[in-house]
Specification:
This protein is of the alpha+beta class. It contains two helices and four strands; from the N terminus they run E-H-E-E-E-H. The protein has a single domain, classed as TATA-Binding Protein (2-Layer Sandwich).
Length: about 80
């Protein structure tokens, strides 16, 4: 049984880039993830052989989104004056 999911993430911050996610091909034994970026946002299409693989791949996508957004909003440490 094949299953799929489409996740669309609207871009609130236009300076945010998902280039790292777009550059890495994602094809696994039981699933694949396709990423497309547009001006309005980013769309992830996840296709899997079964529900368990679909869930694992969706979790992977969500974890990557969290990392990208966390890096974009992380404070830049300032050098301390001696």
């Amino acid at each position: 049984m094949s299953c799929s999911a489409i996740l669309h993430l609207s871009k609130k911050d236009t300076s945010l880039s998902y280039k790292e996610l777009l550059a890495s091909p994602r094809s696994y034994k039981r699933s694949s993830i396709e990423v497309k970026e547009s001006k309005g946002g980013v769309t992830f299409t996840v296709t899997a052989a079964d529900v368990t693989a679909l869930r694992a791949s969706i979790n992977s996508v969500l974890r990557d989104i969290k990392v990208v957004e966390g890096a974009a909003t992380a404070p830049i440490p300032q050098k301390r004056k001696k």
